[in-house]
């Protein structure tokens, strides 16, 4: 594999594929030769490239991972497919639904494999929840609700390329983390979001932008900064309709003190409910009316047989974010290595380009709804 972009999330891609045991990390490309060399050395990659074109020309690379800021996703992925490489793109698949649709079509024509890292799918209890919904353990889903809250943009001195529409896209919080929530809600429930009603807010309207580049989650140490106006949302609330008639709602925010990576999703069904929280990801809450509620702890021996392969340690041995990320890579690389036709059924943790495209469509519909003053808006897939 070769990876383009090695800031916050890129090294986790590398770590996850290494754990599979049969993937070589051939090269790293970043925005300059100097930084690529430094990253390649840190990550133990064989080669460093100062541009993604150079990496894509390397015949030793069969799978390209895209972990750059969002505005580069389309061009890197499109160029990689043209060179005959499979692609694992971090989310979002592209900056807009139109670009994402082009990638879906380009991938189809290429006969290659494409995946999007909606990584929460890789958690064993997420797969357990999904399987329980599918086998009718909670009856018919009627209400899906939750939130995805963080606090890393709480202060006016917090800054990221995600706040610049030309680098991150027209939406910030919704595109960045709302897309994860929507993918997860659809993945667990097996339903599709059909209509949305959105309300978006920019809580911090002016921020101090550091003059030098800074990777995600790096502390603001640079005293030299400029004041910039922020035009994208850092807080949003959304109501949802699903294709089986179920309703839903979720909020996203990156200015919510105390919430670090608080993705919470609850599915209420006609007989029982399920709730999964990323920050307590080894527990699944199961709610009942006629008997006591339960907490299922992650323990392979207690999971449905079909999802046990997503848990690798016995009960009481906590598994976490990086393990779920690795499960994703296990599904993706297993699919590639098996030589399966791209149209074949995909293993559950593997989000396809179609899934990525759908997330782009939902975020765009929410933005459109909010722009119209918060009216119900059809999601056009
Ligand atoms: N799945 C997840 O949970 C998750 C988590 C974080 C980020 N992400 C996604 O991953 C992507 C990267 O986010 P991040 O937080 O790692 O960003 P980051 O800013 O920390 O890192 C970006 C990297 O891209 C490189 N880069 C910038 N311009 C480049 C160019 N022209 N050519 C090659 N490389 C270039 C930078 O050098 C840096 O290494 C984003 O699309 C983001 O949405 C996903």
* Beginning-to-end CA distance, first to last residue: 31 Å
The overall strand count is: 17
Q: Using the alpha-carbon principal axes, give the shape.
A: globular
Q: Helical residue percent?
A: 25-40%
Topology, element by element:
Layout: E1 2-4, H1 10-18, E2 27-29, H2 33-43, E3 47-49, H3 52-56, E4 63-66, H4 73-82, E5 86-89, H5 97-110, E6 114-116, H6 124-134, E7 141-149, H7 165-168, H8 173-189, E8 193-201, E9 206-210, E10 225-229, E11 235-242, E12 247-253, E13 262-269, E14 273-277, E15 283-287, E16 294-297, H9 321-337, H10 353-371, E17 377-378
Parallel strand pairs: 1-2, 1-4, 2-3, 4-5, 5-6, 7-12
Antiparallel strand pairs: 7-13, 8-11, 8-17, 9-10, 11-12, 13-14, 14-15, 15-16
Helix pairs in contact: 1-9, 4-5, 5-10, 6-8, 8-10
The protein binds nicotinamide-adenine-dinucleotide (NAD).
Write structural notes for this entry.
The chain has 381 residues and is α/β, with parallel strands linked by helices. Helix content is 31%, strand content 23%. A hairpin with a 6-residue loop joins strand 15 and strand 16. The structure holds nicotinamide-adenine-dinucleotide (NAD).
Identify the notable features of this structure and list them briefly.
single chain; 381 residues; alpha/beta; nine-stranded mixed beta sheet; six-stranded parallel beta sheet; 10 helices; 31% helix; globular; binds nicotinamide-adenine-dinucleotide
């Amino acid at each position: 594999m070769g990876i383009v972009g090695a800031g916050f999330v890129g090294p986790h891609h590398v770590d996850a594929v290494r754990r599979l045991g049969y993937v070589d990390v051939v090269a790293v490309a970043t925005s300059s030769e100097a930084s690529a060399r430094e990253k390649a050395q840190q990550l133990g990659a064989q080669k460093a490239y100062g541009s993604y074109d150079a990496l894509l020309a390397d015949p030793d690379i069969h799978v390209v991972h895209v972990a750059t800021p969002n505005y580069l996703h389309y061009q890197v992925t499109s160029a990689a497919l043209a060179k005959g490489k499979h692609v694992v793109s971090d989310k979002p698949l592209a900056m807009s639904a139109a670009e994402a649709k082009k990638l879906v079509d380009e991938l189809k024509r290429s006969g290659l494999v494409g995946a999007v890292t909606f990584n929460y799918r890789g958690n064993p209890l997420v797969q357990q929840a999904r399987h329980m919904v599918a086998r009718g353990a909670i009856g018919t889903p009627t209400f899906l609700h939750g939130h995805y809250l963080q606090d890393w943009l709480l202060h006016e001195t917090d800054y990221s390329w995600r706040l610049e529409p030309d680098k991150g896209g027209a939406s910030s919080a919704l595109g960045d983390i709302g897309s994860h929530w929507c993918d997860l809600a659809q993945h667990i429930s097996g339903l599709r979001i059909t209509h949305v009603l959105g309300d978006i807010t920019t809580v911090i309207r002016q921020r101090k932008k550091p003059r030098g580049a800074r990777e995600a989650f790096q502390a603001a140490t640079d005293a030299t900064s400029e004041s910039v106006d922020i035009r994208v949302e850092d807080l949003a609330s959304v109501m949802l309709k699903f294709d089986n008639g179920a309703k839903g709602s979720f909020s996203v925010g990156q200015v919510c003190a105390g919430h670090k990576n608080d993705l919470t999703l609850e599915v209420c069904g006609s007989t029982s409910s399920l709730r999964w929280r990323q920050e307590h990801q080894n527990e699944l809450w199961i709610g009942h009316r006629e008997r006591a509620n339960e907490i299922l702890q992650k323990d392979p021996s207690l999971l449905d047989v079909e999802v046990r392969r997503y848990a690798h340690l016995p009960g009481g041995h906590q598994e976490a974010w990086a393990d779920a990320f690795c499960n994703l890579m296990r599904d993706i690389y297993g699919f590639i290595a098996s030589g399966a036709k791209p149209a074949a059924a995909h293993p559950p943790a593997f989000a396809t380009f179609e899934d990525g495209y759908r997330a782009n469509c939902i975020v765009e519909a929410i933005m459109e709804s909010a722009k119209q003053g918060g009216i119900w808006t059809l999601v056009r897939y």
